[in-house]
C-alpha cells in the first residue's frame, strides 16, 4: 500500500496544485477553486495528514476504510492520518465544497494536537459522516473562508495561530452538529443496540464463545458494518454506556444464570463465558454486582 509522508507528495498524487504552506492546503469552491482530482481511481493509500472535506458527487461510491458511501447529498467527512482511502472511476464530484488538508506536524506542540485525538469522528467510517443542515453548512463555510483568508495572505508570525484557532472552532462546531445528528437518528441508534444484542445472542448460542473466546469490539463493529468508535459513541449517546460496558453487562447477565447451576465451579463458569483467567471474571463480576460470584451463588441459590 502506498503511503505519503508529506502533504506535497499526497497532493501531487491527487493532481492538485502545490500547497501555499508545506504543511497546509485549503481548496474552496467559493475562493481559489476546488480543482478536480486527476486520479479517476486509486488503490488503497494512506498519508500522514488530517483532512476535513465537504463534498458532493454526481455519481459513484467512495471507499473509506472498509465502507462504501453514497455522496449524493453531500457530507462533511474527517480523515485522520494513516486512514485507508480508495475510490474508483465511477465517482464524479461536483465542483463545489471545500477541502482542508494539514500534516499532523502542523499542529504539534499545540493544544489542538491533544484535543483532536478526542474527536471520535476522525475514526468514523464514511457512512457515518456528518450531514449538515443548510444553516450548519453556512456556519462551517464561514469558518473555512476565514481559514482561507489567512492561508492566501502573506504568512506572518500570527498566521499559524489564527489558522489553528479557526480549525479548533470548526471541529468544535462539528462536534456539536454530530450531537444533533445522533439525536435525529435516535431510531437508528435503537436499531444498532438491537443488532448489537442480537449478534451477541447468536454468537453465544452458536458455541463460538467457548471456541473463540469473548468477541472484541472491533469484531462486533465489523459485523454490524460500522466503525468501532461510532458504535461506542452511538450506544453511549443512547444508553449512557459504551460498547464495552454493554458487552460486560451481557456477560454478567449470562454468568448469573450459569452460577445458579450448582454443578459448575466459578472457574468453569468463567471458562464457559470465554474468560481466559477466572480471576479477571471474578473481579469484573464483583465490580458490576458488588459481590463475588461465590457470594452471589450463596445468596440466590435454591433451597
UniProtKB/TrEMBL annotation:
Residues 194-299 form the HTH araC/xylS-type domain. PROSITE patterns: HTH_ARAC_FAMILY_2. SUPFAM superfamilies: Homeodomain-like. Coiled coil: none annotated. The keyword DNA-binding applies. InterPro entries: Homeodomain-like_sf (IPR009057), HTH_AraC (IPR018060), Tscrpt_reg_AraC-type_HTH (IPR020449). Keywords: DNA-binding, Transcription, Transcription regulation. SMART domains: HTH_ARAC (SM00342). It holds the Pfam family HTH_18. The keyword Glycoprotein does not apply. This is Helix-turn-helix transcriptional regulator.
Amino acid at each position: 500500500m502506498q503511503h505519503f509522508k508529506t502533504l506535497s507528495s499526497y497532493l501531487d498524487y491527487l493532481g492538485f496544485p502545490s500547497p501555499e504552506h508545506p504543511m497546509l492546503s485549503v481548496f474552496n469552491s467559493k475562493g481559489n477553486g476546488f480543482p478536480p482530482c486527476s486520479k479517476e481511481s486509486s488503490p488503497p493509500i494512506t498519508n500522514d495528514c488530517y483532512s476535513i472535506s465537504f463534498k458532493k458527487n454526481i455519481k459513484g461510491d467512495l471507499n473509506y476504510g472498509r465502507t462504501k458511501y453514497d455522496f449524493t447529498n453531500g457530507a462533511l467527512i474527517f480523515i485522520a492520518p494513516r486512514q485507508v482511502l480508495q475510490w474508483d472511476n465511477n465517482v464524479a464530484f461536483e465542483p463545489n465544497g471545500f477541502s482542508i488538508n494539514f500534516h499532523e506536524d502542523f499542529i504539534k506542540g499545540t493544544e489542538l494536537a491533544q484535543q483532536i485525538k478526542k474527536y471520535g469522528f476522525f475514526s468514523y467510517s464514511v457512512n457515518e459522516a456528518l450531514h449538515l443542515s443548510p444553516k450548519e453548512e453556512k456556519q462551517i463555510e464561514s469558518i473555512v473562508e476565514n481559514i482561507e483568508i489567512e492561508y492566501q495572505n502573506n504568512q506572518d508570525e500570527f498566521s499559524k495561530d489564527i489558522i489553528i484557532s479557526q480549525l479548533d472552532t470548526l471541529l468544535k462546531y462539528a462536534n456539536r452538529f454530530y450531537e444533533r445528528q445522533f439525536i435525529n437518528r435516535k431510531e437508528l441508534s435503537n436499531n444498532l443496540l438491537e443488532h448489537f444484542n442480537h449478534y451477541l445472542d447468536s454468537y453465544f448460542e452458536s458455541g463460538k464463545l467457548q471456541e473463540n473466546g469473548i468477541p472484541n469490539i472491533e469484531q462486533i463493529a465489523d459485523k454490524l458494518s460500522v466503525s468501532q468508535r461510532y458504535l461506542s459513541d452511538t450506544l453511549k449517546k443512547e444508553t449512557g454506556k459504551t460498547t464495552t460496558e454493554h458487552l460486560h453487562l451481557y456477560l454478567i447477565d449470562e454468568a448469573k444464570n450459569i452460577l445458579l447451576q450448582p454443578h459448575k465451579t466459578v472457574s468453569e463458569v468463567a471458562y464457559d463465558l470465554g474468560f481466559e483467567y477466572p480471576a479477571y471474571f471474578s473481579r469484573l463480576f464483583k465490580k458490576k454486582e458488588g459481590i463475588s460470584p461465590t457470594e452471589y451463588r450463596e445468596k440466590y441459590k435454591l433451597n
